[in-house]
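Deliverable D5.2: sample structural annotation.
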Amino acid sequence: MPVLAALALGLPLSAPAPAQEGPNPGLTVSLSQGLGFDTNADLDPGVEDSRTSALTALGLSYASSTPASRLTLQAGANVEVPFSDDEARVDGPSLSFGYERAVPASSFTASGRFSRTDVSFLRGLGDFLGEDGTIDLPDDFEDLEGEGTRQLGRLDASLSLRDDAPFGATLSAGVQGVDYSDVSAESELLDYTDTNFGAELRFSLTETIDLRAGFTTSTYEEDGSDPETERGVDFQGSIARPDGQYVARLGFDDTDEGLRTSLSFGRDLERPLGAVSGRIGVTRDGTGDLQLTGGVSASRTLPRGTASLALDQSVETLEGDEEELVTTLAARLNQEMTPTTSLSLDALYGASQDTSTDARTRSLELGATVQRQLTRAWNLSLGYRHEREDETGEELAKNDNLFLTLGRQFGGGL
């Protein structure tokens, strides 16, 4: 849903983890109530179905840290109650945890999350925006439409060894399961499980030259279908410079459609007010076609705000056996207008194109939000979002959304 997608981009319904400089351990509670108006909230092609809804969100977050470790726990739920005869929709509960531990020569990280979501809530790109500012489209992005409930569980872990030695290694593993219930009869949504494992060796040849060799394997199993396994190896070299580094990467992936080969070159730059990184390359997909790949990401600290941009195009295997050319763009600007008022602008774009049939799904979101700090704990937000989705063979679907929310966040030490 557009309102919740907007809130995922930093508006007050979210419950951020307490900052490191806060109480330790610390608990933060956020509560928000708002109104939203949509012209086509379900993004049905060629349909205009205006409605007004009441929005309620509750979030809890806990953080505890020591010199060697940090633990975070988060929980939240969002509820939309239309003023019409439509049923209320619930996004939640959502639960997540993160754990980090570092010793002089090694480090360990683990994370997990569980969410139960109405499918109609998952139409906004903001739901798939990662912590690094990039959009990570799910395997079933093209099929997220209609009615039903989506239940997701995910666990990830990573162990890094010999971080301070010329030779080191990193092991990683993850599993994700998605289960659908009460979906529409015409829906193509199916339960699936995705597991992955990776191992990487690191070699420091000199103080400025590093080499890495990695192996990955992933298995995608969809309900009613045989498991699909993909294996890959990649080699990466980097040369450090005072202002950043040069990077080159060569990768091979054994997919269901054939061997996929990719080659790319990149440059990372670090400046006092921000950082810029870019890469460009070419990928020969499993069908033998060449695809241009690459990306650029930039962040900059402004006198009274921040700006960021992340653009990426790559060839990926979705749903176990389908090669897709995936393009994503995320641009954001946060500007302080007065000591108590701020403006946020964002533009999100995601496209997935089948490399063998050229069938494409594209989604675009534009948003603007003004946030006013009423008191130390209370915030008022007024915003507008425009969302549109274009799928091969379907009419253009679009929605305009206006929302007003009043939220409070408070917390303290335990």
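Annotation notes: Residues 1-20 have pLDDT under 50 and may be disordered. Helices lie at 2-8.
The annotation will be released with the project's public dataset once the embargo ends.
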